[in-house]
Amino acid sequence: LSYLLQNTGYDQATVQAWYQVFTKTCKSETMTIQQFVHLFKTFFRYKIGYQFCEHVFKTFNTSKSGFMTFVEFLMAAHVMDKGSPEEKLRWTFKLYDVNEDGRLTLDEVNQVFQTIFTLRSTARIKATELFNRINIDGRKALTEDQFVENCTEYGNMELRNI
Question: Whole-model pTM?
Fold first, then answer.
């Protein structure tokens, strides 16, 4: 509890409220991907595909165990809710770095966009537009630091459009 209070900025009542949501959803100390998808879709009511939720789960599951702990869940909620622009950009990079090699490519951005958009042609166009906007130096791939730096240089790009 003290770790979460120190690292999230949430008060004890908020942490306990999130814990109740977490335990009501998963009935144990860890959350499966299916439980996460259900919870994620409850909070984000617009149509989201299972594959996109799976990408989000993998990004939040920092232990790579295949099960999300309450600490992982709340730390992720904190970054999404109250994280600094840099923290949000770093999380976004990890979301798009599908193969987890520390480099972001147009193909990876396209893969994630295809889980969001139902039309593949729309996904490819949007992914290319985004990658070209953040790929200031014309690289074939961006590291996390380059991604954050380029997004920041671009002029505080709106994170919800990424």
Answer: 0.76
